Amino acid sequence: MRLLLNWVLSAVAVWIVAQLVPGIHVNGAVAALIAALAIGFINATIGALLKIITFPLTLLTLGVFWFVINALMLELASAVVPGFQVRGFFAAFVGAIVLSLVNLLLKAIVMPPREQR
Known about the structure:
By secondary structure, this protein is mostly helical. Helix content is about 75%, strand content about 5%. It has one domain (about 1-110). The chain has helices spanning about 1-20, 30-55, 55-60, 65-80, 90-110; strands spanning about 25, 85. Helix 1 crosses helix 2 (about 30-55). The radius of gyration is 14 Å and the shape is globular.
């Protein structure tokens, strides 16, 4: 149940980002759900690998380079999901930052923290 709620909240976050950031467009709820699934999958596979490989560069830039990686992952997701479009790297960069913040905020509001055992 928690995984399904996480997916829906991520899709809502994608939709909110599409409303806030010029250059990012989502064609409806189904495209937002598929985009959230694709972004999660891409970040868990390719994104994790890139973050490990570029860790020294991330340390040098004090973490700013992770935003670049997240922007590239957002652009990759837009290339494979029909109905989800990201126009340009700047839109992807700003969108990745806003998506992280909106996702964090939505999950803090809706999902209660797990109890310690």
